[in-house]
Amino acid sequence: MKLRRILSYGIMCIGMPLAAYGGAMLFENKQAAWVSMCIAVLACIPFFLRFEKKRNNTARVVIIAVMVALSVVGRIVFTALPGFKPVTALIVLTAMYFGSEAGFLTGALTAVISNFYFGQGLWTPIQMFVWGFIGLLAGVFASPLKRSRIALLIGALLSGVLFSLLMDVWTVLWADGTFRIARYLTAVTASGYFTLVYALSNAVFLLLLKPPIGAVLDRIRIKFKL
Question: Domain extents for the chain?
Fold first, then answer.
């Protein structure tokens, strides 16, 4: 189990960003679908490494599929409100009750599936990693997030800021393949309003959705011994 956990975190924290960056730097935009497929496969590996030969694993897969579907629909429904979406909240909730690997997979699949509506490109693998990484962190800090509304609020705000900061790294690299701190600070400043709206929306959705959805996920987790 320890070896599987180390391998899982290695794939999520090292393999995924390297694949996303390498794909973005080496391939043209028309190869974005292949890069996204590679990232999706990598995102699945840590999740299935945690599997054991038990029937309740089927229920686990179904729950993740439902959470991905809710995240995708939530992103599409709130298209008219840029930055104000329940995606991160649903990813965080998944990770809180089913672990980092489940949160990472939910985030990655939400990005690639929803972008069939919003448009695929080399930004898709980056979004897959960033949303997945937020799910990973939510799983790591699941205990305080479930116990304290203050911790949940802080986590929601920080996840919005983290998403924007990491995506701005991609914005800078996309220009000419090099990272320039001055350009990065400009990008962060320019996206300040989006970051604020997104962070606040995460807080609103998490505080509203945790009582009903969290209770259901916890009941399912206990019932099926997940």
Answer: 2-223
